[in-house]
Amino acid sequence: MSEQGRGLTRRALLAAGGAGALALALPARPRLGGVDLSSLEALASRRRGFPAGLPIPPVISDPEIQIDIHPAKLPILPGRRTTMWTYNGSFPGPTIRRPAGQETRVTFTNRLPSSAGELSVHLHGGHTPSADDGQPGGLTARHAKSLYCDVSRNLSARAAGNDLLIYPGGERLYTYPLSEDGAPERAAFQWYHDHRLDHTGRNVWRGLAGMWIIDDDVDAALPLPRGERDIPLMIADRAFNERNQLTNPFGTLGHPPNDGVTGRYVLVNGAYRPHHAVSACRYRLRILNASNFRAYNLALSNGAPMIQIATESGLIPRPLKRRKILIGPAERVEVIVDFSESVGKSVRLKSVRRHGGENGLGSHAFEGSLMEFRVGEPVPDDTSVPSQLRPLPYWVDEAHNSVDHKWTISISTDFIPTWLINGKAFNPARSDAFPPVDTTQTWEVHNRTDVAHLWHIHHTDWFMLSRNGRQPPPWERCLKETFFLDPGDRIRVAGHLSDFTGKYVVHCHMLDHEDHGLMSQYEIVPAS
Fold this sequence. Notes:
Immunoglobulin-like, 6-stranded mixed beta sheet, 7-stranded mixed beta sheet, 6 helices, disordered N terminus
């Protein structure tokens, strides 16, 4: 990109930071006259800084599930309720929790106003048939043109994927096998959200997101915290007007590369700066970044370590002690936090400045407190974190470093700039790679722009072979399906494509980028 383009990017970042009005964490203070001022701050924060209790979304564990998509008025901020688009009337939607290997059938009914148009639901991280993967679809009578994607109006419903959409007033059954490569799918923290062409960012912003947990025997056999000490947390920023209603930034959103929506208020499970009472023992936190654009560099206010046990693709081979954990949009991380040394105190989960790699729009992390844990008395705790968690699947040893397909991210220089993959904007009727089923593929992804991107591959999990020609850090040398790419980054990943043939998309999970052309498609074909 030219120097002029880089200047525009930097100016856009400064403008976005000003509009965000980020809340800053309180600095540490010394003791004064024998009084620990940090304890006084914790007491004050209970009264004013973290007033709302942490909502825990309802859990559904049935094999047959009905979810209505409809507007609801929700208590997000103090005062007036916020009208949001919801799954079953809540934000986040209900957490679906199911055993691995047991088929789950979910019927989604579109009860939104007809002006919302068609919808599509993607189980993010799921291994599903192509028809049940949440295809974005093409143009319809309600969505007659696309400014950024390369979509013909003359496509048949099947060629465009429109036969897979949920039309206003209609419903669609999605079948999720929860199996992969002849075995139950690995236990993992997944999520589900809308995936409609051009409108994914808008629809998720308005509330269409929920969490999904797969359990299996391997995870259950480990002495990890369970029950009320296993807490899923969805982090998502939003902007509201003076009447507590969501703003609509999408009508005035800038063109690429200045097209990242952020909000001043960072919500955790749909609440702004909530608190949660915990006992002085170990907890398992499953953390999802469901923001449209913003990254978070997670840390604890007391400086204690978090023990990472999993990524979005489930348990990693060995636990990792970490004090800061960067997660971009759609990434997940699971950590064990031990509150036993914080009896009677408050511990904040916060996001801190990212050092290193901050050389582009989207690379910066939010700075401020996210929520507060209020630590009570100790309780008996027989949990622990084993030194070995879960081995990698067999196909990782078969992965080759030679590249089967390259994906290159760039930006057009047209009058209306568009994000491109391999020089093309998204077209639902076009596939750009044709890997055979039941093969292990190695793909290279190169970010040639001055903006960060989050690369997400539908269908299966992937193992990172290298980042910028070097062995990746331990927290990336494992299974993942969403990858943070700073400007200029180049990664190689290997994945095993089993069970299903058909079309699957790859795209940036900065949702405005996806809506503005940064999506492509591959088609798994029968083995020759």
